[in-house]
Amino acid sequence: MKTLSIKDLLGRTDFARGMSADDIEFLSGCASFARFSRGEFMMLAGDPCDHFYLIREGKAAVEVESGNQVSVIYAPSPGDIVGWSWTMPPSVCRYDVRVMDSVSAIDFDARCVLRKCEEDNRFGYHVYKRILEVVIERLMATRVQMLDMYS
User: Fold this and answer.
1) Each residue of 64-112: pLDDT tens digit?
2) Is 0.85 topped by the overall pTM?
């Protein structure tokens, strides 16, 4: 069985759909494989947000703490991106992301991606457009969740 490269795996994701092979290769230059165990945090609120992840397998929970209560505000699935706070200074994680069941992911070095976005504005436009789609999707999911809470 052939092991797929990051470039090959990335090319099969919704996140990279419509990107040119050159852009996928350019982006994959900022990526590595990552594994997280159950209970581990992929991100912690308040920490620098210098990585973002494309979940390949496993389950995680995007959490927010309010007082003594922790609420899950999103449960990313395989194919989902977690961590978009790197896109705007001060690049600080806004939420905790806790691993619920072992996660394998593609780990993107956000500083590397930002540098490449600045070097090639066309590429940067495509990356930011995809990240904005993630943000809009999460806002809509949060809206539905809030409507369910108050109805």
Assistant:
1) 888 888 888 889 989 999 998 999 888 999 999 999 999 999 999 999 9
2) yes
Which of 73, 62, 49 lies closest to 103 in space, CA to CA? 62
Contact 49, 72 (CB under 8 A): no
Rounded CA-CA distance 130/14 in Å is 9
Helix (H) or strand (E) holding 99: strand 96-109
Q: For the stretch 92-112, what's the b/e string if a residue is b when 16 or more beta carbons lie within 10 angstroms of its beta carbon?
A: ebebbbbbeeebebbbbbbee
Of residues 97, 108, 106, 47, the one with CA closest to residue 74: 97
Domain containing residue 47: 6-149
Residues 26-61: tens digit of each pLDDT: 999 999 999 999 999 999 999 999 999 999 999 999
Q: Which amino acid is it at 103?
A: V
What is the domain-level CATH number for residue 138? 2.60.120.10
Q: Which two tokens stand for residue 130?
A: 């995809």
Distance of CA 18 to the CA centre of its chain: 18
Q: Domains in the chain: how many in total?
A: 1
Is 1 part of any domain? Answer: no
